[in-house]
UniProtKB/TrEMBL annotation:
Keywords tagged on the record: Cell outer membrane, Membrane, Signal
Domain of life: Bacteria
Similarity comment: family membership: Belongs to the SusD family.
UniProt xrefs under InterPro entries: SusD-like_N, SusD_RagB_dom, TPR-like_helical_dom_sf
PROSITE patterns: PROKAR_LIPOPROTEIN
Domain SusD-like N-terminal: 98-231
Domain RagB/SusD: 282-583
Natural source organism: Neotamlana sedimentorum
Subcellular location: Cell outer membrane
Cellular-component GO terms for this entry: cell outer membrane
Major localization class: membrane
Signal peptide: 1-20
Name under which the protein is recorded: Glycan metabolism protein RagB
Amino acid sequence: MKKYIKTVLTGIMAASVLFACSKDFLDYEPEGVLSNENVATAENAEALVVAAYAGIANDDMVGPLTSMWVYGSVRSDDAYKGGGGRGDVDVVDRYEQYNLTIADDPLDWMAPRTWTNYYAAISRANFALDVINQIPDADYADKTTRQAELRFLRAHSHFVLKLLFKKIPYITEGLTQDEILQISNVIDNNALWDKIADDFLFAFNNLPQAQDQVGRADRNAAAAYLAKLRLYQAYEQNDTHQVTNINATRLQEVIDYADEVTGTLESDYGNNFLVDFDNGVESIWAAQFSINDGTTVGRVSFVTGLNSPHGTGLYGCCGFHLASHNMVNAFKTDVVTGLPLLDTFNDTNIFDVVDANGETSLAPGITLDPRIDHTVGIPGRPFKYRNTVNEAGDMIYNFSWARDPGVYGYFGNMKEQQAPDCSCYVKEGPFVGTSKNIEFIRYADVLLFKAEALIQMGQVDAGVTIINEIRARAAASTQRQLDAGASDLYNVGMYPMGMSKEEGIKALMFERRLEFGMEGPRFFDLVRWGIAEQVLNAYLAVEKTRKDFLSNAQFTAGRDEYYPIPQREIDFTGGLYEQNPGY
């Protein structure tokens, strides 16, 4: 049964509007400003923990914390910015072009806002820890558990900031404002990973394997995050972000922590992207949202509010986050083996001819991984497993749904969309929000973390066996599309045993792209592997022949792996923070 906390705080936070809280135990809205008087009570502590959970999903379209569609998808080879031309939300155009070359660009307001939003979330966690640390153990039965949850949330926030900015100050509880302003962002890369890991380790050692209230961090989530962190840490970078070594000790930790995670894959891949399966068997940890909860529009997520199909009355605005030709082509499979075309997938385009009805068809002799129809809107194929919406609207994706096909083409995004008649769906003016969870880690992640570590350590068959488990689930995920009228073009085969380490790593990298296409991890994967410059400039070389708007795009190694430290933060600390190289 859902449990609702409606506690009204009388101390801690300014009354900032919370775009995102969570269903179940997070349906609560703080009001007012806390005084320090009588704050250290178990009742107040519980409310503060709820506020800290709200903070990690308290984002919006221009300060994203949950969805990485801008930072990890558009910035990679998965997607184009989309929208109404290059000038529409032009800061994302500059991210896509790798044209953010100065740290104090007044037009760059998105990444600095994410920095601010995440440090606000960290501040909430630290304030709650300061209060809880003062409460005697005898007065607060859940004290250690709540401390562990808060340290988990703090580690999560620092982890994402590190992926985005690399050089960040690590802020803990028990510090005055003056002391915080003395914490530098200049820290050894490995040491910073360990600081984040220490918080996750505290959570791992002090949380129950599962929590009664969904959405709360548990030992399972901490183990998954430790596997993820140690995987990133294994790829050791120098000061200019180049991978110089892959640490076998860290890889073994990835395997060990992955083995601590309990979970299973959803029987159908598409379940992960439907609200009815929120907090399901594959979900390890997710941002929680709610609707019809007594607030004006619900605590729905608007972080992808710009991204719904534009040219249909079923949705709203604004046609952002469109699959690239390269992404679409990646779903080709060999007609005989059913395996991806690892080296030749992008030699020719598929679905690139639109007929008089605004639909496309696939040339003979080509088969597809069915995950394409869970990921990409393609003219002529059902959208979100539907062909109609309550007989009121056609759900066959059409060329007319594209806002600016002359610039960005006509492929849409599907995973982050819900059907317009979903009870999770709301429109505020032209913008679409939903109460669908946004996954931070799902079990497929954990499996592929382990597979990657195994292959890197030379246990190739063991890693490939895991990849094939992911592929077998993909092969079994076709019925929704076929029931909606999609033509059966699907063909997924299994990789053979006996592959070389190099072949295994290539298969692993490709599988991660197919499994998490347009979900946001792609850019961060490329940086972790040390191949961002190689892959992205090869991608751009071909895309420039397809899309004029990318004609001047160029990825610069040693700079573009990370965003600049916001200049206002450097100025605020009197120059204590050090800028990333190249800016």
